Task: structure prediction
Amino acid sequence: MAIHLTKESKILVQGMTGGEGMKHTRRMLAAGTNVVGGVNPRKAGRTVDFNDRPVPVFGSVAEGVDATGADVTVVFVPPAFTKAAVTEAADAGIGLAVVITEGVPVHDSVAFLAHARRCGTRVIGPNCPGLISPGQSVAGIIPADIAKPGRIGLVSKSGTLTYQLMYELRDIGFSTCVGIGGDPVAGTTHIDCLAAFQDDPDTDLIVLIGEIGGDAEERAAAYIRDHVTKPVVGYIAGFTAPEGRTMGHAGAIVSGSSGTARAKQQALEAAGVRVGRTPTETARQVLAALDAGA
Result:
C-alpha cells in the first residue's frame, strides 16, 4: 500500500510536450509509472514516442480523462498558466494534481487551491518535486533510482532534502515520499500526510522534514501529539540561518524567535519526535527508532 499514489494511478502530464515535461515524462515511464497521456491544446491528436512507448496528446484534461480514466495530473506549465491548468484539472474531476511549477504568484495559488478543494481535488505543491511510491509510481521529478520499496513514509518541504533522506535510507526503503513544496501557500500539508501515513498499514515510521519560517512544523507537532501513534523522526533545515533572512523558499522567513529551527525542534521533541540536526544524524535516528521498535 502507499498514500496518494499507487501502481494503479493513471497519470496525465499537462505540458508534456515542453522541455521539462518531455524529460520527466520519460523518467516517469522508465520507472514504471502509468502515464496515459499528455495535454496540449495546440498539439491535440498527436502521439509522442518515448522509447517505443507511444503516449497520446489530448486537447484538454477532460478529453484525457474521458479517453483514459486518468485520476492524476502532473503540471509542467509556466507560472502564468498554472492557475488555469489546475482549475481545468479540477473541473475535469482529477483526484490528484501535482504542481511542479516554481514561481506561481501567491494570489494564483490561493485561487486555484480554493477551487480544487471545492471540486474534491487534492493538490500537491506548487513548487514541489512531487511524490513517489517506490516500485509503483512516480508523479513529478523525484529520481526513482535512489530508493526501494519499504515501510518508511516521508513528507518534506524541501526537494533536495527529500532526495538526500531517500538516499541515506535507501537500504530501508519507503512506502511513499511526498515533497509538499516550500511556498507560503501549499495544497497539501505535513498534517495531511501525517494523517495518511498514520492510516497506512504498510507505513511503520514517518520522517518529517521542515524548515525555518512559519508555524507549519509547530502545528504538525501538535497533531502528532494528539493523533499519531507511529514513531516520527524529524529534521528542520536552517539551524544556522541568520535572523530576519529569507532562506531559499519564499516561506522560510524568521522573525525573532518565531519560526526558528530551534523553536520547531523544541515543539517536535515535546510531541515525542526524535529530531536530528543534520540529514545524516536524522537517518541514524530513524535506524535507532526502527531498532527500538523491533
About this structure: The longest helix spans residues 279-293. DSSP finds nine helices and 14 strands in the chain.
